[in-house]
Amino acid sequence: MSDDFKEMKKQRDRFLAFAFASADLLLEVNTKNEVQFASGAAKGFTGDISSSLIGTNWLELFTQEDRVMALSLRNQTNIGKRCGPILVNMNKEYSSVPVGILTGMKLPDYPELFFITISQGSILTGKMGGQARADTQGKMLDKESFAMAAVDALSTAKLMGRDLDMTFFDIPGTDALKGKMGSEDWSDFKMQLSGILKSKSVDGQMAAEFEDGRYGLLHDKSVGIDDLQKEISTLSKEKDPEGKGIEVTTQTIEADTEGLSEREFAKALIYTINKFEEQGNQLTIQSLNKGFENFLKENAEKITELKSVINQQRFNFAFQPIVDLKTNTAHHFEALIRFESNKSPYELITFGEDVGLAPEIDIMVCSKALNYIIYNMAHNKSTLAINISGLSIQSEPFIKALKSKLEPHLKSRDIAKRLMFEITESSQIKDLDKVNHFVQELQKDGFEVWLDDFGAGSASFQYLQKLHVDGVKIDGQYIDSVLSSDRDGKMVKNLVNMCRDMGMKTVAERVETVQQARFLKEINVDYGQGYLFARPGDKPEFTYRAGK
Fold first, then answer.
1. Which helix or strand (DSSP H or E) is residue 144 part of?
2. Does residue 479 share a domain with residue 404?
3. Are residues 225 and 358 in the same domain?
């Protein structure tokens, strides 16, 4: 064996090792879409050895719907550029693995060939790469699913330093084209259109179909939208019996989220999508930041009204008891906001959080609670619990304002024994160390701090680990089913045991039956809140009536 041959073999082995460091199967595909080289763990995907793939059509590895996307991916890949990774559904007739992660590339020295890798990936990459897409069974996402997935994708991209754009496609005349094609050809056209869009989307899943021939795509900035636009137009002409096709116009906006909280750019995204549905190619929004600015402008009157409510404290409290399950006596009362206008507290507060008024609302509530305790509860030593948004407790101005409100009453009024705090919207907390420091400062002054709606968000246990709170309020969705679902019952029981081991108390929300209360007491939940005990009332008073 010559030295040159050894060196060539060594070089090839290096490239194979490089490919298999992140993939399970490497394929080399010719211009006829035939596999002319295969190596790697083919048996894991195809149930056979690599050599059996030689001469087969590589597209047959995927489901019928995803073959269009895979072929479009190849056709649009530029020489020297990598495409993917995208999530592909594997053909059950050829693969024992349901989903694979596909990456492809064309090399300058071999422009006629397409080199692809396929891997099973990990649970994490599978989740990140397209669980939402797998659930759509080859279809594009709808507006709501697209918006939710886009928020996650933009958050992840921001952390990775990856620049994304969002492009809207306006394709008028689809109804007329559908009539000319017939249902079968139209279905084929829609499937190919879906494949084309998804092939250029983030992780192969971030393409959406809105209403009236309008589509959305979240993609890397490097994607050539003009070429994509031409490809869709060409496809429509091929499928049109008259050969006319349909016009495709596009509007690309910058998916910049600088300065926006996750909640704010979610609102900006929904606003922008809705405007595109209304205006089509007349859309003038250039970025998500501009979308949020426009959202604020359109809601200026509503914002002014809410600020007036805040400044004038035009709201009252309704008090709901949190009841000791062992003694059936009120441990404390949650002070719930009721606006004088009879507008939904949830909608107004949520809107306030969307437009950045959460700190002002929370300071307003704290001031009102302090005044109520001082002037209305001279002979009632009950404790009140008020809510603080996870958005507020990350704001330095809010922290300073709250300390200023509490400081004068710490000694003279013994206010710490009369007031508790519940952290809501914990999903908005990003700086857990900063928030935990604030929590501990409140605790040093004698205040109890609880975590509200525990279990409602995917990161709840991370918050429990990082935030040294005094207790947690278990989200009502789990309490609803503790008797009907053995799984939920065990989960709540294990959560309660964990909290007890960590020295934390527990409250169960939405307790509505005696049977629920009995079960919760048996598994050592400390307190209950719900209609079984009392609806919110005008005063912090409670007398338990069994079976009520």
1. helix 143-160
2. yes
3. no
The whole-angstrom separation of Cα 119 and Cα 140 is 23
Q: Into how many domains does the chain fold?
A: 3
CA angle 143, 149, 354 (to 5 degrees): 80
Residues 412-455 have pLDDT tens digits of 667 888 999 999 866 567 788 888 999 999 999 999 999 988 87
CATH code, domain carrying 223:
3.30.70.270
17: buried, middle or exposed (CB in 10 Å: 19+, 13-18, 0-12)?
exposed
> How far apart (Å, rounded) are the C-alpha atoms in residues 468 and 201?
41
Q: Are residues 165 and 278 in the same domain?
A: yes
Q: How many CB atoms sit inside 10 A of residue 264's CB?
A: 22
What are the φ/ψ torsions at residue 83 (nearest 5 degrees)? -115, 150
Cα 257 vs. chain centroid, distance in angstroms? 15
Q: SS3 for 389?
A: strand
| pLDDT one-digit tens code per residue, 216-248 | 999 988 888 998 999 999 988 988 888 888 888
Query: How many CB atoms are closer than 10 A to CB 391?
Result: 25
Pair 315, 339: CB distance under 8 Å: yes
* CATH code for the domain in which residue 463 is found: 3.20.20.450
CA distance 371 to 408: 12
- The torsion of the CA quartet 432, 435, 441, 444, rounded to 10 degrees, works out to -60
Identity of the amino acid at 462: Q
The values of phi and psi at residue 213, to 5°, are 70, 30
Determine the structural domain holding residue 247 and report its residue range. 135-298
- Note whether 293 and 310 are same-domain residues: no
**Which pLDDT band holds residue 3 (cuts at 50, 70, 90)?**
low
- Only one residue has tokens 């019996």, namely 241
| Whole-prediction pTM | 0.58
Contact 27, 41 (CB under 8 A): no
Q: In angstroms, rounded to a whole number, what is the distance separating the alpha carbons of residues 456 and 529?
A: 17
Are 406 and 445 in contact by the 8 Å Cβ rule? The answer is yes
* Residue 457 dihedral angles phi and psi, to the nearest 5°: -110, 155
